[in-house]
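This entry is listed as follows:

___
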Amino acid sequence: MANSDRTWIEDFIDKNGEEYISVSDSIWEYAELAFHEYSSAKLLMKELSKKGFEVESGLAGIPTAFKGSASFGTGKPVMGILGEFDALSSLSQEAGVTEKREIVKGGAGHGCGHCALGAGSLAAAIAVKEYLREFKKDGTIIYFGCPAEEGAGSKQFMARAGVFDGVDFVYTWHPSTKNMVEAVHSNAIMGANFTFDGVSSHAGATPYLGRSALDACELMSVGCNYLREHVIPEARIHYAYIDAGGTAPNVVQDHAVVRYEVRAPYVYQVKELFERVCNVARGAAIMTGTDFRCDLSMAFTEYIPNNALASVADECMGEIGAPKWDEEDYRLAKAFLDTYNEEVLTCAKRDIAETFGEERLSEKLERPLDDEVHPFSRDRIRLQAGSTDVGDVGYAVPTLNINVATACLGNVGHTWQMTAQSCSRLSHKGMLAAAKILALSSIRTAERPEVIAAAKEEVSRRNGGRYSCPLPDSVLPPLETY
């Protein structure tokens, strides 16, 4: 049966591939930012409804969060597949071209490939549903539409609202430069807007009557910069001015807003560091005679691969294999790699040599696409500085992310190059390979109750028996403020 299930999944997705490519390209064109992915969500929900899924929208108080469910027989086990579909600001770019060409000046673009992520996961969910129906298998498949991963996130709000309750396991994927079960422990993160309120005055005639909120922001930055020396080396502190209080230098700014995000390997470390940042803000307010408030609005729990699920996905990736590249694909990938500057290329060469061996460096620079699958090993799980709200799903139910190549080796995410490749033949091929791996992994896991039990035991050891959201119930999804 093992070979027949793979063959069935591959044939089904290949047969319907153009349909899923069309969905991905449409989402790419919409290029909608966090919490505003209305057209993208509508399209995905429409496709789910057409395929017989029962669709529910507005999950966890988020208009663009939804799920599509299909059940057969006993309805057990319950399988989940995550989809994302949000874009990034300022990354508008023409599709497939190897030079920077904005479509809309300053517009948004899919510089992380979430157009393919959402459509590939859709293809996988439909394939699983049709497999259950065709072979009269018991089970439920749920596509979870998860907005705003690039913003304040949605999955932690969804998990807190119980959206993932009763799900036995979840698979997801992410566009990448390599084919592998992601052996990454991502950082936890917490973010907030710090608003300072002071007193305006004439900066020349009566500055002594003013209390500068902008000064408070700047002193907070000074304090946080000194704080950096006294935190664990894995921690990160980021900031951006949201409102500098106006453009007139001769007016003492009576309001200003700065956004801070802190990262660390574990959520308990993030909470401790965040409180220290809050203390710096308190000090800045005291020094300037201003008032401040902290509006906490985002936090992700760290993501750690579920080893039980990884064993199944690794097996399925090995059987499906890497995307089937041709010479045109290799030429396009090299053209994209050649657009990067020497600093990026130096990093790319180092990474390629580490992955494929120094002796293959010249070969891979000429044909810079990953055409093999790299085996998973729990001993190789490494800390990565980035963060994702997939971690919160993983602390609620067994969850695993896989990476599939949709871009050239050495590619840097969140760039115009990634936007261009995300609507190209490279992304299309990678997306369909990912859909096959997700679908096959779901089917195989469903038929192995011992794997599901082991996967749940891993989650229980990590979360102490229940998911605890890093955000208090009072913090609502920041639909318009983050």
